[in-house]
Each structure stands twice: as structure tokens, then as C-alpha cells.
Amino acid sequence: MMANMKIAVISAGNGGQTMAAYLALKGYETALYTHDPVKAGQLAGPFTLTGCLQGTATPGLVSTDIGAVIAGAPLVMVTTPAQNHPAIAAALAPWLADGQSVVLNPGRTMGTYAFTQALAQAGCRARIVVGETDTFMFTCRAPQPGRPMLNGIKAVVAVAAHNPADTHGLVTLMQEPFPNVIAAPGVAHTGLSNVGMIFHPLPTLLNMARIEQGQPYQHYLDGITPRIADLLMKADGERLAVAAALGVTVPSAPQWLQMTYGVEGEGLYGLLQANKAYRGIMGPHDLSTRYIYEDVPTGCVPVSALGDRLGVETPMLDAVITMADTLAGCDFMATGRGPAMVATAMADGFGTA
């Protein structure tokens, strides 16, 4: 594999802009897709990356034409929030070609199931590999278009293909541009290693007053107090119990922080406070945030639904879902990756790889 390999990045949010800048700086032919013509215009020209990796580089293509973005790209990195995976699959379906690999960054929980189901519904017949990461490659933000900030590169990112037989080849393809990638046993491992569902929705709900009043705060360092960290540990215990009932071993939230960022501290709260990569990561500006609309339907919901099927009680996660439902005025269990998706995944051997 050569550094001039084309890599397509789908979605030009915080993660997409940072990934495109990172890859362009590394010398890869980089193409970035955005559905927004205004943003495409804003992103024309060089990207300036700051933070732990600095430099200026220009992606080869920034376009609203998703077919042109992925044409000739062996690796397609989907960085859109996970609730948008079905829509992205439908948009990609007419343009995908045999031999391409599409990776969800991250898949959250049951991401490859949602994605492959949507591809099939859209009539995609290309022989491709679909995979997912357990977390996003970086901790990052893009405060201005074309000016992404790379707070940290995660030490370890686990990857699994939807078909376990494809994982080795997928990891080999990804490891040159992303040397922090390792192979996971299967998508049950990547899906149940989803700590975003622990770190994001509950602290957001418990900081609603701050958010509504427009008070800026750091999500991880200010928004998670010692008592909130205790609640997160209870929710995390439910995630771990569901994984254990399925026969899947995944790291606890504290273990994940130690493994991913190399931090040391006392308990979850101490580890969060010690993580330099979380400094300056601000809380949401409003309650229409992906911390609710992504992490609840694609994390809390499938883990709760798995718990129901496996006989594992998940009262803390259920409380988060109920609060989020009330806040958003919707039924996330019905609209998210709920019982129907869980039934499909279990019938397909979810947790057996």
C-alpha cells in the first residue's frame, strides 16, 4: 500500500474535517464529501490543522458529489453521526464498486447491521467490505471551517468487519494511514465497547440548565462531577453485564480511558480529569446535540434492548432513554436500533465471533 492511495471521507463535521486534514498532511490523496454546498465552498482551499499534529494541506477534492468523492477509493471512511448511517448507505449504494471497504467511524452499537441493511434496501450489489471502529480515531473539534483542532490521537482503535473473515484484510488496509488500528474479535466487541453511550447522554441531561442558559463549560472536565461519574459507573456496569451475558469481554469505561489515552487517575472521575485530550472539549451549545440524538438511539437503546432479550436489567440506561424521549418528544426505542435490530443481529450470530 502506498501513501498516494485515495481515501474518501464522508461527512465534513468535526471528525471529517480533522480526518481529511490528517490524511492530506500524511500525503494521501484525500476526497471529502459534504451534503452542504455552502460548506463545500467554505472548505475549498487549504486546511490548517492545529493541536498535537500541525500543518497545512489541501484535500484533492471537496464535493457534494458523493460518487466523485468515492470513485477509485479503496477505503471509504464514514464519519457522520451514527444515526445517519442508513441515509449515507442509501447515498453510497449506487456508486460503490467491487473491492471497496467502507468503515463506520465509529459504528456505535450494531452499526454494520444498520448500514448493511440499508445498503440491501437500496439495491447495492457491489461486493464490498463493511466494517466499524469502536471509537473515533481522534479527539478533535473544528471550531472554524477548514481549521480543525486535533486534541489527541487515540492510542488504540479496535476495528471489526461485518463478516469476521474480512477483518484481517480490513485492518491491513487501514494500518498504514492509521497505525493505531488493531483487530477486534467481531462487531459485538466493537459495538459493546461503545463508551460514547456512557460519557455523552447522561452528563448532557444532567447539565441541561447550563446548556439552556448558554453557559459554556467543558463537557468532560466540568460537566462530569464526582457524583455524576458515580452514575456513569452504574450505567457502565449495565453495559458490561449485557456484554458478559452475550459472552463478550469488553473494557470498562476506566479501563478504556487507560488503554486509549494512557492516563492514570483514581476512579473514573480522576481519569477524566487527568486526560489532557479532553481539555477544551466544550459541552453542547443546545439540546439538539448528537450526544442525545446519536448516542441514545445507537447506544443506550440497542444495549437496553439486548438486556431485555438476555434477561439483564438496565435501569440506569432505561432512565436515560426515558429522559431523552421526554426531552426530544420521540420514542428512541422505536426509532433507534431497538428490538427489531437486536433480533436481526442475534439471528445473525451477534456475539458469537
List the helices and strands and how they pair.
Layout: E1 6-10, H1 14-25, E2 29-33, H2 37-42, E3 47-51, E4 55-57, E5 61-63, H3 66-70, E6 75-78, H4 85-92, E7 101-104, H5 111-121, E8 129-133, E9 138-144, E10 147-153, E11 157-161, H6 167-175, E12 181-183, H7 187-192, H8 196-199, H9 201-206, H10 208-212, H11 226-246, H12 253-261, H13 267-274, H14 290-293, H15 296-310, H16 315-328, H17 332-335, H18 339-347
Parallel strand pairs: 1-2, 1-6, 2-5, 3-10, 6-7, 7-8, 11-12
Antiparallel strand pairs: 3-4, 8-11, 9-10
In short:
Helices cover 44% and strands 16% of the residues. The chain has 353 residues and is an alpha/beta fold.
Structure description:
This protein has helices spanning 14-25, 37-42, 66-70, 85-92, 111-121, 167-175, 187-192, 196-199, 201-206, 208-212, 226-246, 253-261, 267-274, 290-293, 296-310, 315-328, 332-335, 339-347, and strands at 6-10, 29-33, 47-51, 55-57, 61-63, 75-78, 101-104, 129-133, 138-144, 147-153, 157-161, 181-183. It has an 8-stranded mixed β-sheet with strand order 5-2-1-6-7-8-11-12, sandwiched between helices. It has a 4-stranded mixed β-sheet with strand order 4-3-10-9, covered by helices on one side. The radius of gyration is 19 Å and the shape is globular. Helix content is 44%, strand content 16%. It has 353 residues and is an alpha/beta fold. It is built from 18 helices and 12 strands. The mean pLDDT is 96. Strand 1, helix 1 (14-25) and strand 2 (29-33) form a beta-alpha-beta unit.
